[in-house]
Amino acid sequence: NQVLSSCLVVPKMKKWPFMGVKDIQFIYVMTNKNFRGKGYAWQMMYQIHQQLKPKFEGIYWYVTNSDNPASKRVAEKMGFALYASGKIRTVFGQKILEIDNLVNNDGHNQF
């Protein structure tokens, strides 16, 4: 048996100040290098979203690097829209995403 793809779904944390109290975020979305490009990450995230949808009221977030086109494709296929760009900085030993270019604020899935 092999793990094809994995991710974490997390609630609001101090390092993500842009998230609301009821929001959640897909992070560390990874696919086994032997199975990349076959849609497994998208299928996994879709199934998780379907399970969460009836129980969840907040916004879904997905944070990725601008230099990761595969991750951006997964986000776009899931229906996420670019919300902002920014950079990570360290404050008192904690990494925080600092948003410097707000692009979209329509209240839908964001990345």
SSE order, one letter for each helix or strand: EEHEHEE
Gross geometry: globular
Mean pLDDT: 83
Number of helices: 2
The level of helicity is 10-25%
Structural class, by secondary structure, is alpha+beta
- Alpha carbon gap, first and last residue: 32 Å
What does this 3D model show about the protein?
The protein is α+β, with helices and mostly antiparallel strands. 20% of the residues lie in helices and 32% in strands. The protein has two helices and five strands; from the N terminus they run E-E-H-E-H-E-E. It has a three-stranded mixed beta sheet, covered by helices on one side. The chain has a two-stranded antiparallel sheet with strand order 4-5. Strand 4 (84-91) and strand 5 form a beta hairpin. It is globular, with a radius of gyration of 14 Å. The model has no long low-confidence stretch (mean pLDDT 83).
Question: Which terms summarize this structure?
Answer:
alpha+beta, globular, 2 helices, two-stranded antiparallel sheet
What's a quick, concise take on this entry?
The chain has helices spanning 40-52, 69-77, and strands at 5-11, 24-31, 60-62, 84-91, 94-102. It has 111 residues and is of the alpha+beta class.
Strand and helix layout:
Blueprint: E1 5-11, E2 24-31, H1 40-52, E3 60-62, H2 69-77, E4 84-91, E5 94-102
Parallel strand pairs: 2-3
Antiparallel strand pairs: 1-2, 4-5
